[in-house]
Amino acid sequence: MATHAPTFPTTAGILFGLGIGGFFDGIVLHQILQWHHMVSSAGYPPDTVENLRINTFFDGLFHASTYIFVLAGLALLWRSAHRRHLWWSGRLLVGTLLMGFGLFNLVEGVIDHHILELHHVNETVPREQWIWWDLGFLAWGALMLGGGWWLYPSGRHRSPAA
User: Fold this and answer.
1) How far is CA 14 from CA 28, 58, 96, 152, in A?
2) CA-to-CA distance for 162 and 148, rounded, in angstroms?
3) Under 8 Å between Cβ of 105 and 144
4) Residue 2 has pLDDT above 50, yes or no
5) For residue 20, which of 13, 59, 67, 132 sits 20 to 30 Å off, Cα-Cα?
6) 74 burial level (CB within 10 Å; 0-12, 13-18, 19+)
7) Closest Cα to residue 134, out of 59, 36, 1?
8) Which sign does the torsion angle of CA 89, 93, 95, 96 carry?
9) What percent of the chain has pLDDT over 70?
């Protein structure tokens, strides 16, 4: 019987964080607050039924991709954990979730908000204020990534088999 200790599935936690970050963005910013949609700054402002239909379609594709991140994280976690009883510090999970959520914000913010300008974080405020919301989104992502990076080593230290 193998005696090696299983390691914590870091990639699974990061994938879960990417998915949860995407769900938060899509559910809270797109749907509840309605600050923007996926392509609302790319020539499809949601001011007509047709443009709202187009935005809703691309929001759906966005949600489908975040769902794939969560399913991939679940598959990796299951593959790691279903063989034996494991114990890991909660800091490992929280740390990797924060890393994934922060990575989501940074990548999505840089690509969609700044490079492609598909949409901006809060399109309900005057246009000259959009940059501040976009930069705040990036700062929030950087703080989460940093917080996760800070928690992760202490979680490894507290876990017998991390």
Assistant:
1) 21, 24, 5, 11
2) 15
3) yes
4) no
5) 132
6) middle
7) 36
8) positive
9) 92
Q: Which residues contact 138 (CB under 8 A, 6 or more apart)?
A: 105, 106, 109, 110
Residue 1 has pLDDT above 50, yes or no: no
Q: What percent of the chain lies above the pLDDT cut of 90?
A: 78
158 alpha-carbon distance from chain centroid:
26
Token pair 């246009």 is at which residue? 127
Tokens of 15: 């994938």
Question: pLDDT tens-digit profile of 95-144?
Answer: 999 999 999 999 999 999 999 999 999 999 999 999 999 999 999 999 99
Q: Where are the alpha helices (DSSP H) in the chain?
A: 10-24, 49-81, 90-108, 130-158
The residue behind tokens 């794939």 is 68
